[in-house]
Specification:
The complex is a heterodimer of chains A (119) and B (512). By secondary structure, chain A is of the alpha+beta class. Chain A has one domain: Ubiquitin-like (UB roll) (Roll). Helices cover 11% and strands 21% of the residues of chain A. Chain A contains one helix and five strands, in the order ββαβββ. Chain A has a five-stranded mixed sheet, with no helix packed on it. The longest helix of chain A is centred in the middle third of the chain and has 13 residues, at 50-62. Chain A starts with 23 loop residues before the first strand and ends in a 12-residue tail after the last strand. With 512 residues, chain B is mainly alpha-helical. Chain B folds into two domains: 55-388 and 443-481, Ribonucleotide Reductase, subunit A, CATH 1.10.620; 484-512, no CATH class. In chain B, 62% of the residues lie in helices and 3% in strands. Chain B has 23 helices and four strands. In chain B, helix 5 crosses helix 9, helix 9 packs across helix 11 and helix 10 packs antiparallel against helix 11. The longest helix of chain B has 31 residues, at 218-248. Chain B is globular, with a radius of gyration of 24 Å. The mean pLDDT of chain B is 93. Classes of the chains: A alpha+beta (119), B mainly alpha (512). At the A-B interface, strand 1, strand 2 and strand 5 of A face helix 15, helix 17, strand 2, strand 4 and helix 19 of B.
């Protein structure tokens, strides 16, 4: 039973991909940088190349953090939906398995936030 | 012929229990269609105890007396311009949070208890629920009347119910109550009467009412007192319903335990808003969130669950996570509001140096280590580049709907991520507590109206912050942003004769 109800009740999922005008939702969290109080939610075209996400979208989200300018992008470690991930910068998000409501996390070794305490 | 005067007990019997007759034209199951589907088994409704034995005429008399006193005090408060006696205008933001976040819940409780009173087949439970329904309506009214005085002098109060329906963080209390109201009558009273009113209410009322007293807000203290005598009746109903269900049939025990687990966690997450009010929003603090949690939950709650152990009831699941979080909860939540203060119906600010010292003292293990550096950085940013805001919308928990700002139970430096998949769609949670609630009834929570997703679907007035604020009925530059840049602060300084600073802030506010 998936809900306690008086009859065989079916709910309507509110956030299916078809409701986002051609976009999909992607969640992004920068580990150890909790000055951004929570991970972010972005509506993105499924065919957006991963490289465009990194170069064109993420700066607008994160560049107010003093660590941002110091990131060595070759050493960044990624996960998608909690599994290790090696992005292909040319390929689109959906093409490399980043689906609607997928979670992308990244860590920047050596950069652990303000005063090095995850802020 | 002279009528015998009945004593209280007889009167109660005649005017409540004797009015419950067995239906003969209709089947009882048709008259009370919600009585059985939750799985709770009741053998004898006459075993329901009502220690107050209240009848309608007595109820009316008591409440009318309280009402007369309350309105006399509110009237005097207004005539004496007593709003000028509160500690400072920052304090008023706690009232804004109360009016937009709590008062609409009182009204929702009025509706919920009316429905519960209609759906319980037993007269004792019907009567208790119906009185509470009227109480809750009275609480909503007295709060609105009391706080309406502040609306004449401060921003952010003007359309509280509209805001409750729409503003992102107010979906947290709104969804809490809608979850309870869309359950059956037994779950509803377990949620609201037991888990919230009995186990957690001290953590809602004590901080707001003592906070009001500490900060010389006598109007709020007065409605608090006026509600307090009702609260003891409500708490009694909470404990009575739990004991009644447990004593009626042992098959009820696992169902009740599951509801206690669920509603403890939902209530605790809702109280996260109170934690930041206690530690960050009261200019004169009563006690820290951590101290309150230790006293009201760990000690008092612990004793309650020791008492319930004889029925086979244990402490709510994940209570130990709440204990691990007690030294970080308020800091994480105030951080969320500081991040998104441009989209809130309250003002936010950085704690002053003396307040940071208070936080260091109250949170010796966490504040200086994890949170002070963040505030120092924001202060520096404010001085050099202006007030920092987070300009991208946050990821929300599918269950409690709070931005995913809570950290792993054993690691305050890492966000806690939990996930489920249902019918091919991913759902995300801030904690094991919220994930378990979803997993138990996914068909319910897939329908959650998550403010961030609704904005991206185009249902909230537009895609930009100003458009969404307009849809919230919030005026940019008046109701939101930092307290330092607010009209509230400028007006306050003017009224209190702090003119030089006032002129400066006024100028800044006008340029916004």
């Amino acid at each position: 039973m998936t809900v306690r109800a008086l009859y065989d009740y079916q709910g309507e999922a509110k956030d299916t991909q078809d409701k986002f005008h051609g976009n999909q939702l992607v969640y992004i969290g920068w580990d150890k940088h909790l000055m951004f109080c929570a991970p972010h939610c972005l509506p993105l075209p499924p065919d957006m190349p991963f490289g465009a996400l990194v170069k064109e979208v993420l700066p607008g989200v994160y560049d107010s953090h003093p660590d941002w300018a110091q990131i060595n992008w070759d050493s960044v470690e990624w996960t998608v939906d909690q599994k290790p991930f090696t992005p292909d910068m040319e390929k689109g998000l959906a093409e490399q398995g980043i689906g609607h409501k997928s979670l992308i996390r990244f860590t920047t070794p050596g950069l652990n936030g303000i005063a090095g305490v995850a802020s | 012929m002279t009528a015998n005067k009945m004593n209280m007990r007889e009167k109660y019997q005649r005017m409540t229990r004797d009015l419950a007759w067995k239906p003969t034209y209709q089947k009882e199951d048709d008259v009370y269609p919600q009585a059985k589907y939750e799985g709770i088994i009741i053998h004898d409704w006459d075993k329901w105890e009502d220690p107050f034995r209240l009848t309608v005429d007595a109820y009316w008399k008591y409440q009318a007396e309280k009402e007369r006193k309350l309105y006399a005090i509110i009237e005097a408060f207004a005539q004496n311009n007593a709003q000028l006696n509160v500690t400072d205008a920052r304090y008023i933001n706690a009232l804004k949070l109360f009016l937009t976040g709590v008062t609409p819940l009182e009204y929702a409780a009025h509706r919920g208890f009316a429905m519960a009173g209609r759906n319980f087949p037993g007269a004792g439970a019907q009567v208790s629920s119906q009185f509470q329904s009227i109480d809750e309506l009275r609480h909503a009214q007295t709060q609105i009347h009391t706080i309406s005085h502040y609306n004449k002098y401060f921003n952010g109060f003007h359309d509280f119910n509209h805001m409750h329906q729409r503003v992102w963080y107010l979906s947290v209390p709104k969804s809490f109550f809608e979850d309870a109201m869309s359950a059956g009558p037994f779950e509803f009273v377990t949620a609201v009467s037991f888990s919230f009113e009995y186990v957690l209410t001290n953590l809602l009322f004590m901080p707001f009412m003592s906070g009001a007293a500490f900060n010389d807000d006598m109007a709020t203290v007065t409605f608090g007192f006026s509600a307090q005598s009702d609260e003891s009746r409500h708490m009694t109903l909470g404990l009575e319903i739990i004991k009644f269900m447990l004593e009626q049939d042992e098959r009820n025990v696992p169902i009740v335990q599951k509801w206690i687990d669920k509603w403890f966690w939902r209530g605790y997450r809702l109280l996260a808003l109170v934690s930041m009010m206690m530690d960050y929003m009261l200019p004169k603090r009563v006690m820290s969130w951590q101290e309150a949690w230790e006293m009201y939950f760990e000690q008092n709650g612990g004793a309650l669950f020791d008492d319930l152990a004889r029925y086979g009831i244990r402490m709510p699941k994940y209570w130990e996570v709440s204990v691990k979080e007690k030294s970080r909860l308020s800091h994480e939540v105030w951080s969320i509001f500081y991040n998104y203060g441009h989209a809130a119906a309250i003002h936010t600010w950085l704690p002053k140096a003396s307040e940071m010292d208070w936080l260091s003292e109250k949170y010796p293990e966490t504040f200086d280590k994890y949170y002070r550096p963040r505030f120092d950085h924001w202060a520096e940013h404010k001085e050099k580049n202006g007030r920092w805001y987070n300009n991208t919308l946050p990821m929300l928990c599918q269950c409690c709907q709070i931005p995913m700002g809570f950290t792993e139970p054993d690691d305050p430096t890492t966000i806690c991520y939990r996930e489920s998949e249902y019918n091919g769609v991913k759902y995300h949670f801030c904690s094991d507590g919220c994930k378990d609630i979803f997993d138990d009834e996914p068909e319910k929570y897939v329908q959650a109206w998550l403010p961030v997703h609704q904005i991206y679907q185009g249902n909230c007035g537009g895609a930009s912050v100003p458009e969404v604020l307009e849809w919230y009925h919030l005026k940019h530059g008046q109701d939101n942003l930092d307290y330092d840049d607010s009209q509230d602060k400028a007006n306050w300084n003017k009224w209190k004769g702090l003119t030089e600073e006032a002129a400066q802030v006024m100028k800044k506010a006008a340029n916004e």
